[in-house]
Amino acid sequence: MTDADQTDATEVDDRIRYEVRDGVAYLTIDAPDAGNSLTAHMRYRLIEHLEWASADDAVRVVVLGASGERHFCTGANLGGPQPPAPAKPEGAPDRAVGDAARMIRRGWQRLIAAVLDCEVPVIAAVNGTAAGAGAHLVLACDLVVMAERAKLVEVFVRRGILPDAGGAYLLPRIVGPQITKELMFLADDVPASRCAQLGIANRVVPDDQLAGTVDELAARLAEAPTKALGLTKWLVNRSFESSRHTAFEEEAVAQDLLAASEDFAEGLLAFRERRAPVFRGY
After folding, report:
1. Domain count for the chain
2. pTM of the model
3. Torsion sign over Cα 167, 68, 41, 92
4. Is 268 found in the same domain as 132?
5. Which of 17, 39, 69, 83 is the most buried (most CB within 10 A)?
6. pLDDT, tens digit, for every residue of 185-241?
7. Are residues 108 and 34 part of one domain?
8. Is 93 among the domain residues?
9. Within a domain: residue 107?
10. 92: which residues sit within 8 A by CB, 6+ positions away?
């Protein structure tokens, strides 16, 4: 498939839609009748599309959204088919030690990692409730735009279970440990307005302006130097695990890598010629 073919293509697979227009990949969860919850197969399709977006030079930003008006994503849909597992030997328990941990690693953790590792910016267009793992899907995105009606819910304690999908890693890095404990311990609805106050949301807009605001933001990023954005994302995400020495060394290496890009050369040339640069994304 050529870049032009991919740009004009719309793919529908198990209620995950993927469409590329003008450098923007629109990745949409299309299961409003199920609260836009994700089956295992839907998670795998999201991961595949995010990995494709990283490799496709026609894609310069991803918008992760959902159909309907009520829900962005309400976490896992346990009613769908589960991935195949090896046959159990005679006498083995239905669930052996390690089975649950493996399921967590192969499931939502892989999806959250795919968002964090995507080499182009990922914008969350949050149209409604993001609950449980769906809330953590929002937290993993690089920029978050929320409709006024939207909310996040750390619903886990209501079900007597632990936060998963990387929530205990992601949320403290955004709001700090004390607010994280409040949100996770009490499991109250967090409206969009408070998400903005806490630094979770970059923008909160009237419900009917969500799509337009996201499109405008995505268009700006699609015209930016894509490799510079991707390496910036990598450095910022790495910063929480790095010492000062490591962070400085990685910054130097990233700059060295970026210097080989065509957009780097275009930026310098445009500066010398006193004109606006025209970045191509590579």
Report:
1. 2
2. 0.89
3. positive
4. no
5. 39
6. 999 999 999 999 999 999 999 999 999 999 999 999 999 999 999 999 999 999 998
7. yes
8. no
9. yes
10. none
